[in-house]
Design goal:
Layout: H1 2-37, E1 45-50, E2 58-61, E3 67-70, E4 73-76, H2 82-95, E5 104-109, E6 114-119, E7 125-128, E8 135-136, H3 137-143, E9 151-159, E10 167-170, E11 182-183, E12 188-193, E13 195-201, E14 207-211, E15 215-216, H4 217-223, E16 236-239, E17 245-248, E18 266-267, E19 272-275, E20 283-288, E21 294-297, E22 302-303, H5 304-310, E23 322-326, E24 332-336, E25 350-351, E26 356-359, H6 367-388
Parallel strand pairs: 6-12, 13-19, 20-26
Antiparallel strand pairs: 1-2, 1-5, 3-4, 6-7, 8-11, 9-10, 9-12, 13-14, 15-18, 16-17, 16-19, 20-21, 22-25, 23-24, 23-26
Length: 389
């Protein structure tokens, strides 16, 4: 009887061991399974652990471009499984001669506490912080990659979750004295972007310029280095974001402030100032599937709708969704065609003298070819069935 009880005790102990091993084997076996089910997405925080190498254990957040920064590497991990990212980290450590035979474990970390950083920053998004972390406004912006090129350093807004109706505004310009501003969990940091205007045509340095609020025509010409010798200041063209065009005259000595009747014209966000050539009228070419393709001689920029109208309108087989623009510098861009720019929140696409607008043919299904292929397939299937019988 005693021998039987000892055998029974051993059997129960053995059973428990087998159960523990079974659970362990189940966890090991299901880890790759769950790793293949979940796919990394933007905004996730990944805990990267290297067994036996604690110095390479790191927490990284997936940026808006789907990448993470890990010891000098910029790895694309979005839409990939955990197991794939594991292998990716292993290969990176070996290729960089950091760890010879690494054992890597990557796991997404659920972060409920974070700070939101948006506006004119390089990597806007949500960044996890601990409720006990003492983080300042400068550090929160640094988590988002710092301020972007169009950032207004003088207007940085902080909206606190406990006082959502109050917006705190701070000046973080380099010339302003440093001040520590604490940022709490789930606060919103927003860097106000500057306005953008563009000066094109016969100026010394054409291009886009960042401004605050608005700028006068004289200031815009000065920011562009002034007009060239071929500039026609009597027929300046202003193109607003909604596509409205206006023409006005300015003295050659534009930098001098002279009394003027009425308000002086100014440029606001999204506006374009075009300075034409006084000696020649350059063409804009409209080609492709329009009724009357050819050169259209104009003195200023045109919207896509205006260029297509000068080309006689679309043909029946024209692609009315997207068009090609070949710039005079050799670059080509494909842009959507919007006949009514007022309904669009984006800036109006313009054609400048020397540009080429190409209207392509829309995709059409060749039903005769489809029917022919259908007859061939059906005939082949019938032949196979007959030979099988």
């Amino acid at each position: 009887m005693i021998y039987f009880l000892r055998r029974l005790h051993v059997s129960r102990f053995t059973c428990r061991c087998l159960q523990a091993h079974a659970i362990l084997l189940f966890l090991i076996a299901t880890t790759p399974l769950f790793g293949d089910v979940y796919r990394i997405k933007k905004g996730d925080t990944l805990l990267i652990s290297v067994i036996g190498q604690p110095e390479y254990t790191h927490s990284a957040q997936v940026r808006e471009d789907g990448r993470i920064s890990y010891f000098g590497g910029d790895l694309d991990v979005a839409r990939r499984t955990v197991e794939t990212v594991n292998q990716q980290i292993r290969e990176f450590l070996v290729s960089e001669s950091l760890v010879r035979n690494p054992v890597v474990m990557v796991s997404p970390v659920l972060q409920e506490n974070g700070v939101f950083v948006g506006g004119a920053v390089k990597l806007p998004g949500r960044y996890p912080i601990s409720p006990e972390t003492d983080i300042g406004l400068y550090r929160a912006i640094a988590l988002a990659g710092g301020m972007a090129e169009n950032a207004d350093h003088q207007v940085v807004q902080l909206i606190r979750t406990d006082v959502p109706d109050t917006v705190e505004t701070y000046d973080l310009s380099p010339t302003h004295p440093y001040r520590y501003i604490r940022v709490n969990v789930n606060d919103l940091v927003f860097v106000m972007p500057l306005s953008v205007v563009e000066v094109q045509g016969q100026v010394q340095t054409p291009g886009k310029f960042f401004i605050r609020n608005q700028i006068s025509i004289e200031e815009a010409l000065a920011r562009a280095g002034g007009p060239t010798q071929e500039a026609d200041l009597t027929a300046l063209v202003k193109v607003e974001m909604n596509g409205n065009l206006s023409e006005f005259n300015r003295s050659e000595q534009f930098w001098r402030s002279t009394p003027k009747v009425g308000a002086s014209p100014s440029l606001s966000n999204g506006d374009v100032l075009f300075v034409p050539n006084v000696f020649k009228v350059e063409p804009i070419y409209v080609t492709g599937y329009v009724r009357t393709p050819g050169a259209q001689r104009v003195r200023g920029p045109l919207s896509l709708s205006q260029a297509v109208a000068l080309g006689g309108g679309f043909e029946a087989s024209a692609n009315r969704e997207e068009v090609l623009i070949h710039h005079r510098d050799g670059t080509t861009v494909e842009v959507p065609f919007r006949p009514d720019p007022a309904d669009s929140a984006t800036q109006q696409v313009l054609l400048y003298p020397g540009d080429i607008l190409e209207v392509q043919k829309k995709f059409q299904v060749n039903w005769s070819l489809v029917s022919t292929l259908g007859y061939i397939i059906i005939g082949g299937i019938s032949l196979i069935v007959s030979l099988t019988k």
